[in-house]
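Task: sequence in, structure out. Protein: Odorant receptor.
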Amino acid sequence: MEAEKRDTPKSDDPYRWSDYIRPVRITVWTWKICGLYNGKPQTTRYRVYRAVFNIFLMVVYLFTLSLNVFVMQTFEQLVLYIMYIVFTEIVMALKAIVTYYKFDQLCDLYRQTLGSDFQPLDAEEEQLHRKGVASINRYLYPYLVTTNLAVASSCLYLLQDDYRLPYFPWILGIEYGPTKRLNYGVLFAYQVIGMYLHMLINVAIDVQLSYLLGMTSIQLDLIGKRFRSLHTSEQFRESFVGLMNHHGKVQRMTAEIEQLFSAAYFAQFGSSGLVICASAFKTSSMFNLYELTAIQNLLYMLSMIFQMFLPCRFGNEVTRKSHLLRTSIYSSRWYEMGLQERKTLRMLLQRMNKPLTLKAFYFFNYNLQAFTTTLNMAYSLYALLQRNALKKV
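Result:
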């Protein structure tokens, strides 16, 4: 992990963000750029910057986007061109609220991942830890690249001569077109910059959740390894209380993560099917297939699939590895321990019958089954839209 020695004080960085992996540090930069950084102390200049940012790039932007719902002429246009972006922006707004108002809670969770109780104790645990962190990076970097390319590809509209805006066609009644190119340039820049910053907010929370769940699954790996290393009754008596305290901290951390992100990911899971379906339909539609903007739709669809996949994948790992703890306990040399220790292990096995699971508002599960269910629903909606489109030909 990209970390320096933890015993070195850093007065200029009280949150010690430099101790975290690069994707996490990128989210901290996002917080600061988008006015969501709620650490103390804060300067008057930064509070003024936050107010200006929220007015022009949050309130005005989202208000104008919402008004476009009434501009679309048909239901198909409404769904394919506006509503799926509106749903994405609603999720973004919920994530921004979580970041700002739960900033201290987020920071406490981050500190736990680097706390002394969560550090590896030997070479084998170091290897497990490095492998887990490498797995987190392996999923987060492609996601960051894909989402940035998705927004950057909106500039492909500039290569066409129809003067279309990339995300929504109406902005407060301001006219634009071949005879008003300055207006078009300003509105185009406003939409792209606004959408890019909103994308950063959206992605930041996805990275944070993936990191926290990934670090939780690493702790389950370490606990499992320590249970497998128990060979005698003496080792069991020396380690049992510490192992149970460690497992209890992981349980509480999992519950806190679930509670913190529940509302935002309930909305994300609920809207992902429609968003993926709409972007897939736009990509494959005949009227868009031979245009450069099809690249934007394709990258947007891949970003949405990635966004849905990450919490499901890392949540699934937490559930899977907590379930494997039973196997790790049974893999210890319990048969060489005393009767009392064997009874304790048996009760522990019964206690761990139910693995750790995460849900969004007690409805959507963070697992791969939820991911495949969402894709199936998106494909069903896509097939329906394609069938209706073919009937009109």
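The CA atoms of residues 45 and 51 lie 10 Å apart.
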